[in-house]
Write a structure and sequence with these properties.
Blueprint: E1 4-5, E2 8-10, E3 16-18, H1 40-45, E4 54-58, H2 68-82, E5 91-93, E6 111-114, H3 118-127, E7 129-131, E8 136-141, E9 149-154, H4 162-177, H5 180-189, H6 197-203, E10 205-215, E11 218-227, H7 235-246, E12 250-251, E13 257-260
Antiparallel strand pairs: 1-2, 2-3, 4-6, 4-8, 5-6, 7-8, 9-11, 9-13, 10-11, 12-13
Helix pairs in contact: 5-7
């Protein structure tokens, strides 16, 4: 690894990249399939491309009818990362939209990378995030990894502290165990029998809190639910399984009933596309040496965590082919 200065790595070929922070870059918790709103013809053709493949998208990505400049910058960045020899047959396939979704920064915005050796794909997906002065890209494997994020709960009156997170995690596990259909779904859909599959998934549930500004000097707390050992399901089945949990209510003896933020209340960061925080709380622009655009141009940072939502389409989660 090369030494970094002020959060910036300079490669031997002169490429400047944001250095990974301690512990690595955050993993965006994607709540929809990379195939969402991709034209049907491409859904048929792209999987037939031979050889290793991966996906790339930009920070604050959106569908572009003319993606020429994005494609050029993406190709230049990838060639500098993997080397011109490995990039000699690089193909970056540009997405076409199946229809108009009337969403802020609507998909499809994932480009398909092919024509390069497996070592190059492994390098790109291993990096995960490459933020340079010209373009910032996220790279993920062709077989989209399962997110660990399940949902966000609100309305509890728990104090915002680590003890509350542990208490809510215990409540969530207890509530899920009272609905055996959630465990049954795992056992009906995993590729090979595993008597412990549901137990391991539910036992791995973890909770973190997030403080959201509702007014300039008033905030409230919401709680994100994660499963650190997701069950071995397809992406489509995983979203169906997590929707079973999202349909529940979580009632505490002393702190009210927690409800899932869903549909138009679901967080969707316009920057990294994660479902577990609003745009103003995106962690990437806060990383030392970040080149990607800021998520907000508002100079007043007291409002950056305001509950800003970009998710207007109903039922996009849980239907990965939309």
């Amino acid at each position: 690894s090369l030494p970094s200065a002020n959060g910036v790595l300079t490669l031997n070929n002169g490429l400047r990249l944001t250095a990974p922070p301690t512990g690595g870059f955050p993993t965006p918790q994607l709540g929809q399939s990379v195939w969402r709103n991709v034209a049907l013809t491409l859904r048929d053709k792209w999987p037939q491309k031979e050889g290793p493949k991966a996906w790339a998208r930009t920070f604050r990505a959106q569908y572009e009818e003319n993606a020429q400049m994005t494609n050029i910058k993406m190709r230049n960045l990838i060639a500098l990362i993997i080397g011109e020899a490995a990039a000699s047959s690089l193909l970056i396939s540009t997405p076409s939209a199946e229809g108009e979704l009337f969403e802020c920064l609507q998909p499809p915005y994932n480009f398909l990378i092919s024509g390069v050796p497996q070592s190059a794909i492994t390098r790109l997906t291993g990096l995960g995030v490459c933020s340079s002065p010209d373009i910032t890209c996220f790279f993920i494997p062709y077989n989209q990894p399962l997110p660990k994020y399940i949902c966000t709960l609100e309305r509890f009156t728990f104090p915002d502290c680590e003890g509350s997170n542990s208490g809510i995690a215990a409540l969530v596990k207890q509530t899920i165990r009272m609905h055996p259909n959630i465990s049954h779904f795992i056992h009906q859909h995993i590729p090979s029998p595993d008597a412990e599959a549901a137990i391991k998934a539910i036992d791995s549930i973890r909770v973190t809190s997030l403080s959201i500004a509702v007014l300039r000097n008033l905030s409230h707390t919401v709680w994100n639910i994660y499963v650190d050992s997701p069950p071995n399901l397809s992406l489509k089945d995983y979203f169906e399984w997590s929707n079973l949990i999202r349909d529940l209510q979580f009632t505490s003896e002393d702190y009210g009933t927690g409800l899932v933020r869903s549909e138009d209340r679901q967080f969707l960061c316009t920057g990294c596309k994660s479902y577990d925080h609003p745009t103003g709380l995106c962690p990437f622009p806060k990383i030392l040496g970040w080149f990607g655009p800021a998520t907000s141009t508002n100079d007043d940072t007291s409002n950056v965590s305001l509950d800003n939502r970009a998710h207007t389409s109903q039922n996009s989660r849980g239907n990965p082919n939309r």
